[in-house]
Amino acid sequence: MTRMNGQWRLAQRPVGMVKESDFELIEEPVRELVDGELLVRNLYLAFEPAMRGWLDDVKSYIPPVQIGEVMRASTVGQIVESKNAEFEAGQLVSGMLGWQQYVLTDGTPGPFGGLSKVPDGIPPQRMLSALGGTGLTAYFGMTEIHPVVAGDNVLVSGAAGATGSVAAQIARIKGAGKVVGIAGGPEKCAWLVSDAKLDAAIDYKNENVGRRIREEFPKGVDLYFDNVGGEILDSVFLGMAERGRITMCGGISAYNEKELPPGPRNLMQTVIKRLSIRGFILFDHLAEAGQAIANLSEWTESGELIVEEDIQEGFENTPKTFLRLFEGKNLGKQLIKIADVE
Ligand SMILES: NC(=O)c1ccc[n+]([C@@H]2O[C@H](COP(=O)([O-])OP(=O)(O)OC[C@H]3O[C@@H](n4cnc5c(N)ncnc54)[C@H](OP(=O)(O)O)[C@@H]3O)[C@@H](O)[C@H]2O)c1
Q1: Which of 342, 315, 323 is nearest to 19 (CA)?
Q2: Is the distance from CB of 127 to CB of 120 less than 8 angstroms?
Q3: CATH number of the domain where residue 275 is located
Q4: Based on CB atoms within 10 Å of each CB, which residue in 20, 223, 230, 267 is the most buried?
Q5: Does the residue 62 lie in any domain?
Q6: pLDDT digits (tens, 9 = 90+) for 256-303
Q7: Is residue 111's pLDDT more than 90?
Q8: Are 113 and 154 part of one and the same domain?
């Protein structure tokens, strides 16, 4: 029986807000395996705001996705056939396997890494959430870029998302004095306090962010983990404590802008308050991923770190699910399930 492989490919470069029609669904038969190859069937696809940046034809930390190319994305899949001695049929693996149903590979790492075997006993989708790119980003941001110091007053934006929710909880686990999250809407804010066990949450869609930061942190914010940039970052500058640290993880508020807005009005606060701002990219830290995953696993198993996954269904809904990130519809890690484990 010939298997058909559905692939979502980039049809055109988005202008402004990314649209479903920027991608097209192509089906093609999967050819027979030759010696040394294996066939992976994707089970879950992961979505990250950074993928929006990969669609623009600009120089960045990785090359753009080309028009006609399968959309690049992290996935978890199951090996359904193997003619490669290193991989067995049935094994679950994760890697940058893209928005497609099947992947034929010889297992050699490509420019974005190779296949990692999913350890036994771990729900496979966890390799894309707390134990995957976003969990690791939160981990390195909070432990290496500007490590949380016990007693720190910590503020995290994008706090109900995949990276932010883990970063804020790591701050709590590492002994921060107070941890406050910024997120959009009352449901997300309620979840941050009741489930993620933060001290408070600020609803940037319905509250005055600057005023709430001053109320929550009368002595100022020692550590700000920024996922959104824009107006929120500008407000935070005014609420920082002297010698405060800002970890720049992302700036989703501008990812779909046709023209970038002017820079923050309150940047001089970095001088007045002697602030340190440091950006980072996860890829530079992957050599230490093993220890990070061990710590993250320990915290999830002990229940100190709760993991939220927003799992949509159906391969046909892939681009629509990507858009959820920019509509603020996801709570925790945005994933889509496209097949069951066999
Ligand atoms: N530096 C790195 O290596 C690295 C690695 C991974 C991720 N990141 C960055 O981390 C950030 C979070 O990524 P993620 O994968 O964890 O996504 P996520 O936070 O799970 O999802 C995106 C969230 O961003 C918020 N958002 C959307 N538009 C916004 C806007 N205009 N203003 C403010 N918030 C907005 C939405 O939440 P609300 O409902 O709260 O608005 C949405 O749920 C992104 O900036 C991403 O680029 C960086």
Answers
A1: 323
A2: no
A3: 3.40.50.720
A4: 223
A5: yes
A6: 999 998 999 999 999 999 999 999 999 999 999 999 999 999 999 999
A7: no
A8: no
